[in-house]
């Protein structure tokens, strides 16, 4: 047998939840060990947020090169070397994962490669191909993330791909079918459509990007169509036949069976938590529905020295949520009173145009019985948006009637992903529409859209009637 290694806090999984938790725990003076069975950076850095944004950005460059005639620019012989695009993507990923490794080392965190398994509530066993090591710990943070759901009629194969496979294609496919018009399907479908792939998105619900307001998803749908993509809603994917070089996807719309042939089918119908092979029962950690780990406001499970964060717990599966919870868990272990509060958590889709939302939508607020007003300002009335040739979209500000407290905002438009930060801050800081309207925003910037929406809320906008 091996001698157990003692540590204060052991973190399982080095994704955006785990590595952030480990760093914060080290900052707070704990002896920290982090265990990762795959690659440091987790899903987000390796096969999620970052590589997808690299492909989306490259797709935009390509599209701009082809379609800037209205700005007086035409280019001939624009070529696409997709293997170079993939190289660019991999370089970005490697820089970031290398950076995280450096941060772990710089914070004197012991990084261990291998798969962790609970023996009891104070002991973990870590195994790699050749060896095993036991660790005893005072506290553990479970940050093992999630993996794509597989549906029985679409077993993953050479041409039936999950998001990881979809991000790693070596050659640009001529055609793809995407099952699932959620944010991952829409983002990746959109990226390939930008490169010229013929894309068909099959969505079971009435609309793609369910959860965002219809006016917002409608803009995305229109742009997908402009890129030559087809979006089929209320479509039930039934099955797939695969040959050496193509797939035929069968689906049903309005009771009629249809089929499409394509090079690949991407299955993007959701993810499930990695909680089934962790030995949680040996540690006594209870699971909730769908394998989610139940936690309190300090990310503590039912076992008082074991915490859980990120995609394995309830809430939207987003990297910034995982990191936020990681800091809370590390601080809770150090005896701080930190608690989770999702009031100002943003949700962003890197579609075309980008969509972003924070706090309440008008509908949600009304459903909760709040008296609210919604104020809208279009990108088309903003000088910066026009000069960027990005005049599609709007910002909607949701305020409480009476005092004008900002309780939510939704943005559809270029750079919505960055613009939403100001609205999150406004909500966190308890600001009113007047506070936003009185804040001097540089001209000409997209930020002025926020200021002007606040003026709309106050009834005195300058740039619209
Ligand atoms: P993960 O990132 O999943 O990391 C968990 C880690 O734990 C993994 O590295 C895994 O190998 C390791 N692990 C699992 N079990 C064990 C074990 N037993 N022992 C040791 N190690 C183990 N989110 C956003 O906020 N913005 C985006 O733009 C965005 N884009 C996305 C695009 C795609 C295509 C996908 C798939 C996801 C995207 N996400 C995005 C979601 C985001 O990636 C996740 O929410 C985030 O990675 C969750 O972080 P985590 O730390 O909980 O887990």
From TrEMBL:
Miscellaneous comment: The active site is a redox-active disulfide bond.
Q: Which PROSITE patterns match?
A: PYRIDINE_REDOX_1
Q: What is its EC number?
A: 1.8.1.4
What residues bind NAD(+), as annotated?
180-187, 203, 270
State where FAD binds.
Answer: 53, 144-146, 311
Q: Which family does it belong to?
A: Belongs to the class-I pyridine nucleotide-disulfide oxidoreductase family.
Put simply, this protein is called Dihydrolipoyl dehydrogenase
Q: Which residues form the Pyridine nucleotide-disulphide oxidoreductase dimerisation domain?
A: 345-453
What is a GO molecular function of this protein?
dihydrolipoyl dehydrogenase (NADH) activity
Q: Where is the active site?
A: 443
Assigned keywords, A-Z: Cytoplasm, Disulfide bond, FAD, Flavoprotein, NAD, Nucleotide-binding, Oxidoreductase, Redox-active center
State the Pfam families in the record.
Answer: Pyr_redox_2, Pyr_redox_dim
What cellular component GO annotations does this protein have? cytoplasm
Gene behind this protein: lpdA
Q: Which residues form the FAD/NAD(P)-binding domain?
A: 8-326
